[in-house]
Amino acid sequence: MQDSVFFKRQSKRSYLDRPVPDDVLRRLFDIIRWTPSCANKQPWRFVVVSDGPHREKLNMSLASGNEWAAKAPLMVALVARESDDYSRDDDPVKYYQFDSGMACLSLLLGAAHEGLMGHPMAGFDAHAVKEALDIPDEYHVMCLVSLGYEGTADLLDELTRAKDEAERTRKPINEIITKERFEF
Fold first, then answer.
1. Whether the predicted model's global pTM rises above the 0.90 cut
2. Which CA distances in Å does 110 have to 10, 28, 61, 121, 176?
3. Is the pLDDT at 1 greater than 80, yes or no?
4. DSSP structure class, residue 144
5. Beta bridge partners of 146
6. Which has the closest alpha carbon to 36: 123, 94, 99, 78?
7. Could you tell me if 135 and 129 are in contact, meaning their C-beta atoms sit under 8 angstroms apart?
8. Which end of the chain is more exposed for a tag (fewer CB within 10 A), N or C?
9. φ, ψ for residue 79 (rounded to 5)?
10. Number of Cβ within a 10 Å radius of residue 37
11. Helix, strand and coil percent figures for the chain, each rounded to 5
């Protein structure tokens, strides 16, 4: 089971200077397209940027500490708007956010399946991203995802390399899952 795409997926920070072929991107786009969503609303929108002036502006929107992402062959902005949401009368859950998260995971797992690495980020200036990519005001920038072929740690600065080489950790199962009732 450890060789499953679920365990292969990692959020590393080093990318090779190697373009992602169009056929690989088409397969990833199809995976995203088939992501489940509440009431089949499919509220997500992905903007894929490779180079040029939009990419330069997008790179400038990255928060300090995320400069490594500028070296990824592709940057993907995941955006969604609340008007595309499904709603229930009994609970104000924002399903467009939940659905967008599932679509992001589809991208990340699809990328791992294709031999790529994707790293989702919240470290960016949302206003600058919207301006860089001409995103209308009613859309929320849910995350940015750097995407490409994984490079080696020696391509990173010392601080970023230390983050990549740190042991991966997760909470114990009993801290996140119970059976029959809520017992945390």
1. yes
2. 12, 6, 26, 17, 25
3. no
4. E
5. 75, 119
6. 99
7. yes
8. N
9. -130, 155
10. 18
11. 40, 20, 40
* Domains of the chain with bracketed CATH: 5-153 (3.40.109.10)
- How many CA atoms lie within 13 Å of 30's alpha carbon, on the beta-carbon side? 7
What count of residues does the chain have? Answer: 184
Q: Measured between alpha carbons, how far is residue 16 from residues 112, 114, 177 in Å?
A: 15, 15, 38
Q: What pLDDT score was predicted for residue 90?
A: 87
Average pLDDT of the residues in 77-95: 91
* Section 44-64 average pLDDT: 97
* pLDDT at position 8 over 90: no
117-121 sheet: strands from edge to edge: 44-49, 74-81, 139-148, 117-121
Residues whose CB is less than 8 angstroms from the CB of residue 153 and which lie 6 or more positions away in sequence, other chains included:
14, 161, 164, 165
- 90: DSSP letter: T
**Cα separation, 112 vs 78, whole angstroms:** 18
- 67/160 Cα distance (integer angstroms): 10
